[in-house]
Amino acid sequence: MTEPVTKLETEDRPVRQRKPDWIRVKAPGSKGYGETRQLMRDLKLNTVCEEAACPNIGECWTKKHATVMILGDVCTRACAFCNVKTGMPRAVDPFEPGHVAEAAAKLGLEHIVITSVDRDDLPDGGAGQFVKVIRALREQTPQTTIEILTPDFRGKMASAVAAIVEAGPDVYNHNLETVPRLYPTIRPGARYYASLRLLEEVKRHNPLIFTKSGVMLGLGEERLEVHQVMDDMRSAGIDFLTMGQYLQPTPKHAKVIEFVTPKAFDAYGAIARAKGFLQVASSPLTRSSYHAGDDFKQMRAAREAQLAKAALKG
Questions:
Q1: Alpha helix (H) ranges present in the chain?
Q2: 137, 144 in Cβ contact below 8 A?
Q3: What sign for the dihedral angle of Cα 189, 191, 192, 196?
Q4: Contact, 38 vs 291, CB < 8 A?
Q5: What is the pLDDT of residue 16?
Q6: CB–CB of 14/248 below 8 Å?
Q7: Contact at 8 Å (CB) between 55 and 244?
Q8: What are phi and psi of 252, to 5 degrees?
C-alpha cells in the first residue's frame, strides 16, 4: 500500500544524502516574517518555531502565525530528536501569560498554539503556567481558540491535567513522537503508555475537549508499528493525528534513517481516516502546529456533522 522509502543507511554505516525535493522550503525573509520575529523579541517570548528549527517557519511567520513556547527556552530533558537546549532552566516569568495574550491580540490570531519545554524541576511540571496563559488569553482575546501542546508532566500527570482541562483549552495536544520500540533511544525520558494515559485522562475530565497527538516518521519505525500506534491512539479517544518527516537538526541528534515519500504519507493518512480519526494531517512537512487553525475548524465541523448524523439515527 505504501511506496518504498528513500533509505539513508547501508549495512555498514549510515550514508549522507541530500534532502529530497519534497521537503525543501524557501528561506524566510518576508516583511510579515520580520514583523512576527520582532514582536516575539519585543515581548520576550520564545517560539518552538525557532527553538526546534521548524522548516515551516518562513510560511507561518509570513502569515503572522507563531507557536509560543512558554516556561523558558531550556528543557530539563534531552530527547534525541529535539533541538531545544537542555540544562537548568531559569525562574518562571510571571509576566509571560500577559505577554502571550498581548501577542495574540497584536497578531489578530483566530487560533493560537501554546507549547512548552519540559520543566521537571517545578512542583507542578509547569501546569500552572499553562493555566495562567489560558486565562489571560480568554480575558484579552476571547475570540481566539486555544490549542495547547504539553509535556507529559512525569510524576505529576493527574493533577496537572485536571488543572489545565479545568482552564478550558479547545484542543489538548500531547505528542507520542514515535513507536514504542524506539522510545529508549529517541525519547528516553518518557514512557509511551504514560503519554497515552495522559490523553485518556483529558477525555475522562472533559470528553468535549479535542485531543491531538503526533508522530515523526523516518526514525526506523516499521509500517505495522505505525498502524499499531494509530490503533492505540483511537483506543485512547484521540481525535486528531499528525504525521510528519523527522529531520535531523544537528549531527549530534538521532539520524534520519529514511525519507518517507509523499505517496507513503498519503497512504498512512488514508489508513488513519479509515480508523476513525476526526482529523488527519499527514505529509513530509506536517508539524503539530502547522495549519493548526484551519485543521481545528475542519475537525470541529467533522464533529458537528458526526453529531448531526447520530441525532438523525436516534
A1: 31-42, 48-51, 57-62, 96-107, 127-140, 157-167, 183-186, 192-205, 223-235, 262-274, 292-313
A2: yes
A3: negative
A4: no
A5: 45
A6: no
A7: no
A8: -80, -10
CA angle 254, 257, 258 (to 5 degrees): 135
Asked if residue 199 has pLDDT above 80, the reply is: yes
Integer-rounded Cα Rg, in Å, for the chain is: 19
* pLDDT value, residue 8: 46
d(Cα 233, Cα 3) in Å, to the nearest integer?
Answer: 24
Q: What backbone torsions phi and psi does residue 42 show, to the nearest 5 degrees? A: -60, -35
Q: Is 282 inside a domain boundary? A: yes
- Distance in angstroms (rounded) separating the CA atoms of residues 64 and 120: 31
pTM: 0.89
Q: Residue 64: its pLDDT value, please? A: 58
Question: Concatenated DSSP letters for 119-168?
Answer: -TTSTTTTHHHHHHHHHHHHHH-TTSEEEEE----TTTHHHHHHHHHHH-
Evaluated on CA atoms 53, 56, 61, 66, the torsion sign reads negative
What lies within 8 Å, CB to CB, of 204 at 6+ separation is none
Set of cell numbers at residue 299: 475537525
Number of domains forming the structure of the chain: 1
Residue 16 in domain: no
The verdict on residue 38 lying in a domain is yes
Element (H, E) at 247: none
Q: Is the pLDDT of residue 10 over 50?
A: no
For residue 153, give its domain range. 27-313
Cβ neighbours around 53 below 10 Å, total: 14
Q: DSSP 3-state assignment of 86?
A: strand
Q: Is 73:85 a contact under the CB 8 Å cutoff?
A: yes
Q: Return the DSSP state at 248.
A: -
Q: CATH number of the domain that 265 lies in?
A: 3.20.20.70
158, part of any domain: yes
